[in-house]
Design brief:
Distance between the termini of chain B: 50 Å
Oligomer: heterotrimer
Radius of gyration of chain B: 27 Å
Strand order of the largest sheet of chain C: 4-5-10-6-7
Largest sheet of chain C: 5 strands, antiparallel
Chains: A alpha+beta (153), B alpha+beta (742), C alpha+beta (274)
Structural class of chain B: alpha+beta
Shape of chain B: globular
Helix content of chain B: 25-40%
Helix content of chain C: 25-40%
Strand content of chain C: 25-35%
Order of helices and strands of chain C: EHEHEEEHHHHHHEEHEEEEEEEHHH
Structural class of chain C: alpha+beta
Largest sheet of chain B: 7 strands, mixed
Distance between the termini of chain C: 57 Å
Number of helices of chain C: 12
Strand order of the largest sheet of chain B: 3-5-1-12-9-10-11
Radius of gyration of chain C: 19 Å
Chain lengths: 153, 742, 274
């Protein structure tokens, strides 16, 4: 089926099998490999992208539901000067170790900060609960978000 | 402040290329048809003729054409099951196809005719020997460490305390599942994969395909924790054989479910302690009986066992020790390396035993630890003398930092019940005994155009090797760290520095790198000395410029390198003077150095639902010298949270030898909402061996949290847990069996 | 390529349903089932674009579109004021990522005994609005879920809306899972109770994950009715709930533990009732 949606701020029209997963559209059809697959079942959050500003597991989104939506992946964030501080904070505070959870984690953090610029730690924990990190213990991810909040992103 | 990790920007922007991000032209996809039955006689593996088998490539044990062996330590494990199936995830048939759809259809057309045999379900079942699958009594390996006369002292001791402690499987749950790609060349094969030890894989390939040349390299690794130490040899062999048969690249990537079902786990344990003490809490003798469940094959069990046995008396001194260890075989996938490698199991047991001693004598857990903690001049049971153990130091730091004594003195009351617990532990860095000497690791530094490359077989898997090793080299060279880099591990460019395991990367590999860098530094000075007719010792480097003793500029780094030309300097591991260990008697210097740790865990318990909430973890870990403090703290916190998960929610039960928890929805790990607050104290008690006194630190943190967590629960509720994980269901059961309600 | 339709109106949907497509809402259950090879749909019907299935409003009841996501429900002012127990349940489902997509309709149609929206809806005496070839019909939630993962929905019907009576009664929701977030309930309890002259004048307690379906604890409610919420009453109600529940041992928990925790949650409900 023909599907038209916004991808990283640009219009995108593709012919897709209705049940094809968004993660496969991104990684295989569009060579956007920044979004990772960790479990395929919506449990780990490594595949998180933003859909109309909200974090979703792209491994659970079928192509037939992309019509008219706006998708944001890590590739757009990487090049966005407004996000530089957030990304730098992650790197400098030790919030990145193996890096596999990082793109998804950043997008979830970004979505939270865009909707709530000064979240309490409890809000941050809730917002990131769907992004498993096995390396850091989360402590430095919280510090990175703390460091980047409340200022010009 | 040390600069941010070198690979951080690529990782945070999603640009870092993990295995499945790497496109390989013309690669087929591989799948493994697995037995599905834990033990069976293989009558036949048949193929549905209605499927067009010419469209794919398939391999069974009968058409392998090469030795059917995955070389790890022993050679008891086959690449594919031949006459007998030994565990349910064992490979029966390998298939490679052009796409996933065809692969699935081909795999569905494979029909194995299996005659089920009696299986050994678990550790207890193995000990009972109703069914024997290995040797006479299901033993895979055993070892013993002893000193003094433990039996004699125990026989006459006034007070003897006994306890049995159990731990279960733990799954690594690295975010990136396992995978490799095999790319055949003329008479060569390249393996790219998410793997910790490229030379292990190379060795396994050479064993089976001796006529070929190999290149094994890592892709960016999304976590490993030991789970990618030996298993990659299995899938690399499987992919390589398919690639050779297909004459094209083959990608074998496991999805999460398959990874959880088939790959290695932490060895379950049952450890019995019998301790003689006096009334004041001094330990007089320790007898330990440790049993580990190794799964169906030997793989790394002998070394896991050695480490468990050598850590089984913990951070305490005792002159009369007898530790017997045994690994038993069960009809489950082989267990393997997992951060800590036998030590966390041993530490849980000994720490709980110390708490039991305290409780029995009416002393505080802290008091008993202080009384028995290892001091300078003490010896470990294997006989190794400790000249400067930092055990006391970390203990007192953790206690002070957390306010443990005040918290522990508080009577738990009200809802939720609060509790605090303490643990003291250690981790021997580097390979056990003569292991480092046997590896004889070699590092190289390659100099060209004013830049240095550190060439080692150590893999970057998140721990920061690609940041830390260049820093060590840069310091020895006197160069700014930006001029030194380290590529992803690749056997075609780096010598064998040994595997990325055993907390050896900073301490042992770092030392070899430092040696190479020092030699290189000398060569540069000698070169400049000969040009300028000076003595080499008159030359030094200051702010990136080589100067003479008067401060006169001789050359910039770029100039010095240009005139020197490209240079490669190697260095090899050499054991410290007098360092030796006898594997047969388990006597001598077991480890190059020990790192020490103490944890304080504060929790809240809802005594109605038995949900436990960890509030704060105070970590005081001695890392010798922190080369990169942020990365060091990351290892401490990340490892501690893995320990916490193992302690409270990570559980694998088996039914008919199959794991019940085999997906991320059922095998649960801590989320951001489950993590406690951390109070992280890096203690630096420099060791003698590592660069600047650095010690191994990657594994130390895992063992500390579980016993401290158990102790905190005991403080809050009076319930004594001797088994991991400590789930609400178990606490409820303990609470109701002691007659205690809500 | 499989046929897939995203009808905007109920009448479009009704026509398409005659072909027995696989219905997809948020996809958070369905896509996992496909990934685990439990099902392989031949055609899809996406119900998330049905205008009649969207929107949250109040008329004579709080009326929630079946296609509304848990993220929307958890933060909607009308839900927070009229059905706070449902808002609490909605915010406890899965993760942010799941809540952004999973729908209340999907949760009801999946009809798992641990579906978190079901206990508050049952406690609040919600009614389902179903669209079928014959038009609309209303069915109380208790009649909608008929068994373990079974509903009264005919394959030609879709769940369109959920209606919740406006009430000022005390209501709450509690859930116990294996970790603090992203957790499938081991036990859940929602309650809605009216008090008059300090005595329970009405009680509805709905328990999840302690039986093949979410169940109303009727015997427990009977223990409470017309009595004052004292600690003693709380314990008698807890005991009644423990007898009334029919939990099992499974991969997530044990029957004994579930029974005990249910009792505790009931006791807490009684002690906190105002």
């Amino acid at each position: 089926m023909r599907v038209s949606f916004q991808l990283n701020g640009r219009p995108c029209t593709l012919d897709l099998d209705p049940i094809r997963r968004l993660i496969d559209v991104l990684r295989e059809d569009l060579d956007l490999t920044g979004t990772k697959e960790g479990c395929g079942e919506g449990e780990c959050g490594a595949c998180t992208v933003l859909m109309d500003g909200l974090p979703v597991n792209s491994c659970l989104v079928p192509a037939c539901q992309l019509e008219g939506v706006s998708i944001l992946t890590i590739e757009a964030v990487a090049d966005d000067p407004r996000r530089r501080r957030l990304l730098e904070s992650f790197v400098e505070e030790g919030a990145v170790q193996c890096g596999f959870c990082s793109p998804g984690m950043v997008l979830s953090a970004m979505s939270l900060l865009d909707r709530c610029p000064d979240p309490a730690l409890e809000d941050v924990r809730r917002a990131l609960a769907g992004n498993i990190c096995r390396c850091t213990g989360y402590e430095r991810i919280f510090r990175a978000i703390d460091r980047s909040k409340g200022r010009a992103p | 402040m040390t600069a941010a990790r070198v690979d951080g920007w690529d990782k945070i922007t999603g640009r870092a290329r993990f295995l499945d991000d790497i496109h390989v032209d013309g690669a087929w996809i591989a799948g493994v048809v697995r037995a599905g039955v834990p033990r069976a006689h293989v009558r036949s593996v048949g193929f549905d003729p209605s499927f067009d088998w010419s469209r794919v490539v398939r391999i069974t044990a009968s058409d392998l054409g090469v030795d059917n062996v995955v070389r790890i330590i022993a050679e008891d494990m086959p690449i594919l099951a031949a006459a007998e199936v030994s565990h349910a995830a064992e490979a029966l048939c390998l298939v490679a196809a052009p796409d996933r759809g065809m692969l699935a259809r081909a795999m569905g057309a494979v029909h194995a005719d299996l005659e089920p045999l009696d299986a050994v379900a678990d550790l207890e079942d193995a000990l009972a020997c109703r069914t024997v699958i290995r040797g006479n009594d299901n033993t895979l390996c055993s070892c013993r460490v002893s000193c003094g006369d433990a039996a004699g002292v125990l026989a006459s001791a006034p007070i003897v305390v006994e306890g049995t402690y159990r731990t279960g499987h733990q799954e690594h749950a690295y975010l990136e599942p396992s995978g490799v790609v095999a790319i055949p060349g003329g008479r060569s094969i390249e393996i790219v994969g998410s793997l910790q030890c490229p030379y292990y894989v190379q060795s396994a390939l050479e064993r089976v395909l001796p006529g070929l040349r190999f290149r094994v390299r890592q892709s960016e690794i999304g976590g490993a924790f030991g789970g990618k130490e030996d298993y990659p040899s299995v899938i690399a062999l499987q992919a390589a054989l398919l690639a050779l048969k297909a004459g094209r690249p083959v990608r074998l990537s496991l999805d999460r479910h398959e990874d959880m079902v088939a790959t290695t786990k932490r060895h379950p344990s049952r450890i019995f302690h019998r301790t003689a003490v006096d009334r004041d809490g001094a330990i007089l003798a320790m007898q330990v009986d440790a049993i580990l469940d190794g799964g169906a094959y030997v793989t790394l069990s002998p070394v896991v066992l050695q480490r468990a046995v050598l850590h089984s008396t913990g951070a305490y001194r005792c002159q009369h020790v007898d530790v017997r260890g045994r690994v038993v075989a069960t009809s489950t996938p082989p267990n393997g390396a997992f951060r800590g490698f036998g030590a966390p199991q041993a530490i849980f047991a000994v720490e709980r035993q110390i708490d039991l001693v305290a409780r029995t004598l009416g002393l505080s857990p802290l008091e008993v630890r202080r009384r028995n903690v290892l001091r300078p001049g003490d010896r470990m049971p294997c006989g190794q003398m400790l000249d400067a153990p930092a055990a006391s130091e970390v203990l007192e730091r953790a206690v002070a930092e957390s306010g443990y004594e005040k918290l522990r003195a508080r009577k738990p009351s009200g809802r939720p019940a609060r509790g605090v617990g303490l643990s003291l532990f250690l981790h021997g860095g580097g390979f056990t005994g003569g292991g480092e000497a046997r590896i004889g690791g070699t590092a190289a530094i390659s100099l060209a155009r004013g830049r240095a490359e550190v060439l080692v077989s150590s893999t970057e898997m998140g721990q920061g090797a690609r940041t830390v090793l260049p820093i060590i080299a840069a310091r020895a060279l006197g160069w700014p760290p930006e001029r030194v880099s380290m590529p992803l591990a690749d056997t075609s460019i780096a010598p064998d520095t040994g595997p990325t395991v055993a907390s050896r990367t900073t301490m042992v590999v770092g030392r070899i790198v430092e040696d190479a860098a020092r030699r290189l530094e000398s060569r540069i000075r000698e070169h400049l000395a000969s040009i300028h007719s000076l003595g080499a010792s008159e030359i030094s480097i200051r702010e990136g410029v080589y100067v003479d003793s008067g401060g006169r500029k001789l050359a910039t780094i770029d100039q010095a390198c240009e005139s020197l030309g490209p240079v490669r300097q190697e260095a090899r591991y050499s054991p410290p003077e007098g360092h030796s260990f006898d594997d047969a008697t388990m006597k001598g210097d077991a480890y190059l150095d020990y790192a020490w740790g103490a944890d304080v865990v504060e929790i809240e318990v809802d005594t109605e639902t038995w949900e436990v909430r960890p509030i704060r973890l105070t970590l005081a870990h001695d890392v010798g010298r922190a080369v990169h403090p942020v990365l060091a703290a990351g290892q401490m916190e990340g490892g501690s949270l893995q320990g916490l998960g193992w302690a409270c929610m990570e559980q694998i039960r088996t039914a008919r030898c199959r794991y019940l928890e085999d997906r991320m929805s059922t095998y649960i790990v801590p989320t951001a909402a489950d993590a406690p607050e951390f109070s992280t104290v890096i203690v630096e008690s420099p060791g003698r061996f590592g660069p600047g006194g650095a010690k191994g630190l990657g594994e130390l943190p895992v063992g500390g949290v579980p016993p401290a967590y158990a102790s905190a629960i005991e403080h809050a509720t009076g319930l004594i847990a001797a088994e991991l994980p400590i789930t609400p269901e178990k606490l409820f059961h303990l609470g109701s069996s002691t007659g205690r309600r809500g | 390529m499989m046929p897939c339709h995203s009808p905007r109106t109920v009448s479009e949907a009704a026509a398409l349903l005659r072909e027995r497509p696989t219905v997809i809402a948020g996809g958070t259950d369905l896509m996992v089932a496909i990934h685990q090879k439990a099902i392989a749909p031949a055609s899809l019907l996406d119900v998330t674009r049905l205008t009649e299935a969207r929107g949250i409003r109040v008329d004579t009841a709080l009326d929630i579109g079946a296609a509304e996501t848990f993220a929307a429900i958890a933060s909607h002012p009308l839900v927070l004021s009229h059905a706070p127990a449902l808002a609490a349940a909605a915010s406890s489902v899965g993760s942010e990522q799941i809540r952004s997509r999973a729908t209340i309709g999907g949760n009801l149609v999946t009809a798992s005994p641990s579906g978190d929206s079901i206990p508050p809806l049952l406690a609040l005496d919600a009614t389902t609005v179903i669209a079928g070839p014959g038009g609309l019909r209303e069915l109380p939630l208790a009649g909608f879920i008929v068994g373990y993962r079974l509903t009264a929905l005919d394959p030609t019907e879709i769940l369109l809306r959920i209606r919740i009576p406006i009430t000022s009664r005390f209501q709450s929701f509690a859930k116990v899972g294996p970790r603090r977030a992203v957790a499938c309930s081991k036990v859940s309890l929602a309650g809605c109770a009216g008090l008059s002259a300090s005595r329970f004048s009405s009680v509805r307690l709905a328990a999840g994950a302690v039986a093949p379906t979410v169940i109303l604890l009727e015997e427990t409610a009977a223990v409470l009715l017309h009595n004052e919420p004292t600690p003693d009453l709380a314990e008698r109600a807890a005991a009644a709930a423990e007898r009334e529940a029919r939990p099992i041992d499974d991969v997530r928990s044990t029957a004994q533990y579930r029974r005990h925790v249910l009792g505790r949650l009931v006791s807490r409900f009684v002690r906190s009732a105002r």
